[in-house]
């Protein structure tokens, strides 16, 4: 699997997933799917996935492949900030409200996502290796 394919696949998955989160959190409460799960668990799992995909994409981009600590901070901060903004956004959605505990679940989920993907990366480092120049022969 080429580097370019992995990078494009990671970006596509991230955009689709992030769009799904935005769509679901923009639905009025009356239009929400009836899923029998704890709200905080849903937040945790949603942001675990978001951080996982954001890290995967950024790790494959130039500029982030050598400074892993900076990348981890950026991913957790981005997911946490988005979670806070999403909670504020829900103040304007009928039947929804902002909840600090939801934001905490979002942030903890993002941290868990980082733990999962860095664990995977430890055992499968080749997923994040390679570069565009090597794949295209330009360099």
Give the strand tally.
Answer: 0
Beta-sheet strand percentage?
under 5%
The number of distinct helices, counting runs of at least 4 residues, comes to 5
Mean pLDDT: 88
Q: How would you classify the helix and strand content by structural class? A: mainly alpha
Tell me the Rg in angstroms. 17 Å
The separation of the N and C termini measures 19 Å
**Residue windows where pLDDT falls under 50 for at least 5 positions:** 132-139
Q: Give the topology string: H per helix, E per strand.
A: HHHHH
**Which of globular, elongated, flat, extended, rod-shaped describes the shape?**
elongated
Major sheet, described briefly? none
Q: Report the helical percentage.
A: 55-70%
Walk me through the structure:
The protein is an all-alpha fold. Helix content is 70%, strand content 0%. The protein contains five helices and no strands. The chain has helices at 3-26, 39-60, 68-89, 100-123, 132-136. The longest helix has 24 residues, at 3-26. The protein is elongated. It starts with a helix and ends with a helix. Mean pLDDT is 88; it is low at 132-139.
């Amino acid at each position: 699997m080429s580097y370019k394919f992995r990078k494009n696949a990671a970006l596509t998955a991230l955009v689709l997933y992030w769009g799904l989160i935005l769509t679901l959190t923009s639905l009025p409460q009356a239009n929400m799917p009836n899923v029998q799960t704890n709200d905080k668990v849903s937040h945790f799992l949603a942001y675990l996935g978001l951080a996982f995909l954001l890290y995967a994409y950024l790790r494959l981009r130039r500029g982030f492949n050598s400074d892993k600590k900076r990348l981890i901070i950026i991913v957790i901060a981005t997911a946490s900030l988005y979670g806070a903004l999403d909670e504020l956004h829900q103040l304007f959605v009928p039947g929804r409200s902002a909840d600090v505990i939801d934001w905490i679940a979002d942030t903890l989920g993002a941290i868990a996502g980082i733990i999962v993907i860095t664990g995977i990366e430890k055992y499968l480092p080749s997923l994040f290796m390679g570069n565009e120049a090597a794949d295209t022969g330009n360099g």
